[in-house]
């Protein structure tokens, strides 16, 4: 192909000098993918064709001699007819066109022959080059094929080994799956059995719920009946207890009156028996004891109800004297045992006192004030619970103020096993009742202390104890 292009360029270089200095004419030829452009020479400044002799000119229809004769006759005719300048110009152009056409045909034939030969040579060289390349490529392909074959063999071996392992694992998995299926089947059977049992138990449970529901309803109705009966019995017991307390109080009162009558009769008999003897002896004033300590010193050793007369008073007061605790001689201010007396009372009751000295009672704030104002007294608080456990609190000095100071409490010198929280409140505390709360606490201590807070603190007032407060 390169040789063909070189030959074409050489031929064009041969034609170019003839076209310099004149107006150029071009002619383009397309041959396959290649295009050829030819620059044609102008014939205006060229000599006539008869001056040139072409050995390879195309064959004419008439011999040169005839042509020459025709030319000469034509010249003579031209001279005779004297043609115009345009006609001559046209004839020269036609001659040039014919000449150019001949040159183009020759050039086209030459190019086609050269192209054909060049293409054949190119094909031969290309085949040779391609054959060598193909051989080299084949060799490389064979080498690569051998290498790939070896690799494929290795891969195939690995695949076979992996396949064998997978088959073994698959077999193991299959065996394991079979065992699991058997186990699942057993579990399914067990679940089915448990489900049946659960259904049976649910049915029994429903039956039991229905039966127990009926029984519960009957028990509920019986409970309501029993509650009504219990309420009626509680009311009856309360009534009986009230009657019993009143009977006990009446019996105690009768016993006290009987004892007093007996003493009176004995005294009267004594006086009657010694009337004559006594009439000659001047009468003496009867001795009045100020407290139980004087009664003890007079020789009385038995605990009971005795009469004392307060300082600057003409009225006798009955008190209960404890002649056994801590040597005896204790004047009992308060005695609580079984709750037969209501201590939830007002200011007036606590001022004057209530209850019977032989039973549950409160001596009275006014009496305690007059008693503790006459001389120094110590206070002893004896506590006992239902199990028989005992405790006590002892104060070396004790007294309370008058009503103008709300019977304020004063106690010093504490000792004992009950502790301060189970005995008296702090010194200086004012007395409070349910209708007259004189303490500064917002807890309504008087209400918590069952109506009155004379000597015992709130804690002691609520404990289920037998309490005795004595001077």
Automatic annotation (TrEMBL):
The biased composition feature labelled Basic and acidic residues covers 75-87
The protein's UniProt keywords, in alphabetical order, are:
Angiogenesis, Coiled coil, Signal
List the biased-composition ranges (Polar residues).
419-432
Any one Gene Ontology BP term:
angiogenesis
Q: Which residues cross the membrane?
A: none
InterPro entries (UniProt xref): ANG-1/2/4 (IPR057439), Fibrinogen-like_C (IPR036056), Fibrinogen_a/b/g_C_1 (IPR014716), Fibrinogen_a/b/g_C_dom (IPR002181), Fibrinogen_C-term_domain (IPR050373)
Residues forming coiled coils: 191-243
Please give the residue ranges the record annotates as the region Disordered.
53-87, 419-439
- Residues in Fibrinogen C-terminal domain copies: 283-452
Per the UniProt record, one Pfam family is Fibrinogen_C
Q: Which residues form the signal peptide?
A: 1-21
- Where does it sit, as one GO cellular component term? extracellular space
Q: Which SUPFAM superfamilies match?
A: Fibrinogen C-terminal domain-like (SSF56496)
Q: Could you name the domain of life of the organism this protein comes from? A: Eukaryota
**What NCBIfam families does the record point to?**
GGGWT_bact
Supply the PANTHER family for this chain: ANGIOPOIETIN-2, FIBRINOGEN/TENASCIN/ANGIOPOEITIN
The identity of this protein, by name, is Angiopoietin 2b
